[in-house]
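>> received
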Amino acid sequence: MPVPKEQPPWQTLRPKDHRGIELWREADLARRRDNDLRQTDREGIIGRGPRPNDDAGMPGKPHEARMPELKRTALYELHQELGAKMVPFAGYEMPVQYPLGVMKEHLHTRAAAGLFDVSHMGQVILGGTDAAAQLETLVPANIVGLGEGRQRYGLFTNDEGGILDDLMIANRGDHLFLVVNAACKDADVAHMRANLSCPVEVVDDRALLALQGPAAEAVLADIVPEASAMRFMDVIIADSAFGDLWISRSGYTGEDGFEISVTNKQAVALARALLAHDDVEPIGLGARDSLRLEAGLCLYGNDIDTGTSPVEAGLSWSIQKVRRTGGDRSGGFPGAERTLPELENGASRHRVGLAPEGRAPMRDGTQLFDGETAAEPIGHVTSGAFGPTVERPVSMGYVPTAMSEAGTRLFGEVRGKRMPVTVADLPFTPANFKR
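>> returned
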């Protein structure tokens, strides 16, 4: 992955950036953090699955000939205009950062509002009066009981109880609206079409923007006044100067915010209108990853995958009582034979927060040991980076349940050396959702 550019000193920032200056304080501290993030960028800030260079092709051929054809979102030219550094990600050319830099993009989102292009995600409509009941055969969540105008986090599971993907599911009255992960969307659509009899419509003429941060409500309310009345996980379809906007009050940063589906033809105009606000900056994949990690949120392919159960991943809360043992619609989803007993009795391992000592992050793949000289690893790190808000390295990983209590001291092997790390409570930064 490319290395971020050196950032300008804080004194040269535009006026609208000065409101957050206390978050990064003096320039020397910012330079030290930027050094940490440049190292993170070199080693893969946006996670293991997929890395930006996973699409590199056959050895022995010129680089240009090896690269597959990448898709572009409706905002591609705007990203270039804004000076974004573009990288391959999940089959798309996506912005990993803008001239502001990963560090300040992260902090600006926490202080004001950040605008993310997440159009590479899959948008899917399930039609038919029984779409909710049918979808419950593939996910362990309560979809039948999901109220109109509400959204819920869910998981596609496999027959072994592992996670095929995580997704958002919205009840829009006469249909369900799903948002699935970019790297999994083709497989997810095939999975649904193979197992559901209701219509499965892929929405390919709309972009998806995420507006995140404490100023998000005020910014969006200038365009859609009714957004102010929305609660966390509410969904609406709102008329606007940019056409019908499909809005959910949700996001993946731990901050209050919205995800906004807009037609491709209106996407740039809407993005420009949002960016015209003093509180809004464009944010790339690098800061998106560090924001979700501080918020203790899973990245598919890193923290959850086909071998990880919902209980192991700490996602039991996404399985409502009605789908559990003794519930009115208990089971009936793939892998229930593993998941239901784990809900009752616990799993043998658990996803935990990890706080490395010192300033060196412990990144995905780092092996964990219960002693400085222990021979066999007891777990591993699945995500790790420098946390700009908490001003220290943060990681997540899996350890045996007996070692998952906060305060447990372990060791991670970094470049052949055993470094101390402490099990920590998640999230590293508190959520700021509007309840």
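>> The first strand starts at residue 85 and ends at 89.
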